[in-house]
Amino acid sequence: MDCSNGFLKTRSRDVSLKELSRRLAEFAEVRGWDQYHSPRNLLLALVGEVGELSEIFQWKGEVAKGLPNWSCDDKERLEEELSDVLLYLIRLADVCGLDLGQAALTKIVKNAQKYPVSNHTPTSTSNQP
C-alpha cells in the first residue's frame, strides 16, 4: 500500500503461516488468553471479523481490482479487517492441531482435479467454485 498516514509502511518479507501461528500462540500465552481460545470461541470471533470485512463492501457495488477509487483510510481499514480474519483463521487451525498451509496446498490439488483446465472457457462461469 502506498498510502502514508503517519505510520511507516514498508514492504515486508514473505511471512510463513507457521511463523504467524507461532507468534499468535506466544501473543495469547503471555496474555493468559489460551483459556479463551477454544475452537468454538475462535470460530465465533472469526465469523465476527468476516462480518466486519463484509461491512466494508456492503454498499459499494462492484469494486475494481486494485481499489483505484478507494481512499487510503478505506484501504487501511480493509487491510486491518483482512488481517483480523487471517489471524483468527490461523489461530483456529493451530488450536485444532491442523497444518493450514499444507491443508491449503492439498485443497488446491483437489480443486485442480475437480475443475480441470480442459473444462475452462474464458466466457463461462459455470465451472467456477
TrEMBL record:
Gene that specifies this protein: LOC113851943
EC number(s) per entry: 3.6.1.12
Lineage top rank: taxon: Eukaryota
Protein location: Cytoplasm, Cytosol
UniProt record, GO biological process: dCTP catabolic process; DNA protection
Keywords assigned by UniProt, alphabetized: Cytoplasm, Hydrolase, Magnesium, Metal-binding
Subunit structure: Homotetramer.
Name under which the protein is recorded: dCTP pyrophosphatase 1
Function: Hydrolyzes deoxynucleoside triphosphates (dNTPs) to the corresponding nucleoside monophosphates. Has a strong preference for dCTP and its analogs including 5-iodo-dCTP and 5-methyl-dCTP for which it may even have a higher efficiency. May protect DNA or RNA against the incorporation of these genotoxic nucleotide analogs through their catabolism.
GO MF term set: dCTP diphosphatase activity; magnesium ion binding
Pfam families: MazG-like
Species per Swiss-Prot/TrEMBL record: Abrus precatorius
UniProt catalytic activity: dCTP + H2O = dCMP + diphosphate + H(+)
Cofactor requirement: Mg(2+)
An example Gene Ontology CC term for this record: cytosol
Main location: cytoplasm
